[in-house]
Specification:
single chain, Rossmann fold, Arc Repressor Mutant, subunit A
């Protein structure tokens, strides 16, 4: 596999890393880095996960990847590898962030998984060069904690799928909160040690993760807006439906809507008033409108 090298500010996708604490100066990678930002979710959790954690992780990764989001994780045993697998099985793109030198896939047993990630259009990245240089961490486990800031930094949303009280995944959650990212945590049995970390995150304000659509709606709010808007005018008059269709297409000027819809000004005024009363549209002033 060919090792590539670049600075985070060289692409729209990784430019976000320039604003995090201890921003990486150089990144090394195999595969393909997206040129521009794409909705991205980090999914991390326990290495020795339960069947509950495995099921939740796989389904979350599968559904968000199917929706078009990129899944980021750390290629480790347990939750990380399951998250990558779920994204791959959905035909999506996933990115693995290493805490080791770029030429040292860890664990070595996941070399095949790394190759699959690359073949599917994703990437394996590290801030450590082939000789182990670069980055801010020292040798050993500290490097795995250091790479967590990159996992959360690349993402728009972070999901902690399963975590004990002192899990390294909670370190990723801390970085995410520092970076202003929203953190979701999977609630679990209060008597199960691997749910203790997630339950404590929720108690401190993390968003309880209940289903894949929680993430999809957060990553793709415009789809939810369009879906709700379409639903809100179901059963409306033909004129109302024409108006909403125009606004959904990006036309918000009243005069232009009248022209495009082949309706009279009087019909428009009556219909837009009813849509406003039903809280479907919001006036922007100057006869311009938007869907609520």
């Amino acid at each position: 596999m060919k090792i590539n090298k670049f600075s985070p500010q060289e692409t729209g996708f990784t430019e976000v890393l320039c604003s995090i604490v201890l921003k990486p100066k150089i990144l090394y990678y195999y595969g393909k880095i997206p040129e521009n930002r794409v909705p991205t979710v980090a999914i991390v959790g326990a290495r020795k996960n339960t069947s509950y954690g495995k099921e939740v992780t796989y389904r979350a990764a599968y559904e968000v990847a199917k929706a078009g989001a990129i899944v980021v994780s750390g290629l480790a045993y347990g939750t990380d590898s399951i998250a990558h697998r779920g994204a791959l099985d959905a035909g999506g793109v996933t990115i693995a962030v290493l805490g080791t030198a770029i030429n040292r896939i860890y664990p070595i047993s996941h070399t095949g998984l790394a190759r699959e990630i690359i073949a599917a259009g994703g990437a394996v990245i590290s801030e450590y060069g082939p000789d182990g240089s670069g980055g801010y961490g020292e040798v050993g486990g500290v490097r795995f904690l250091a790479r967590n800031r990159i996992i959360s930094g690349l993402s728009d949303v972070v999901l902690i799928a399963e975590a004990a009280d002192h899990s390294g995944s909670l370190n990723t959650a801390s970085h995410a909160l520092e970076q202003g990212k929203e953190v979701f945590a999977v609630p679990g049995d209060i008597n199960r040690p691997l749910s203790e970390g997630c339950n404590k995150l929720i108690a401190k304000g993390a968003i309880p993760y209940l289903k894949p659509s929680d993430l999809v709606e957060k990553l793709f709010p415009e789809r939810v807006h369009a879906k709700r808007s379409k639903k809100s005018f179901m059963g409306g008059s033909p004129v109302e439906q024409k108006i909403v269709k125009q606004i959904l297409s990006g036309v918000n000027d009243g005069e232009q809507i009248v022209m495009n819809s082949d309706i009279s000004v009087q019909e428009f005024n009556q219909a837009i008033t009813m849509l406003e009363i039903r809280d479907v549209v919001v006036p922007l002033g100057m006869n311009k409108w938007m869907l609520r």
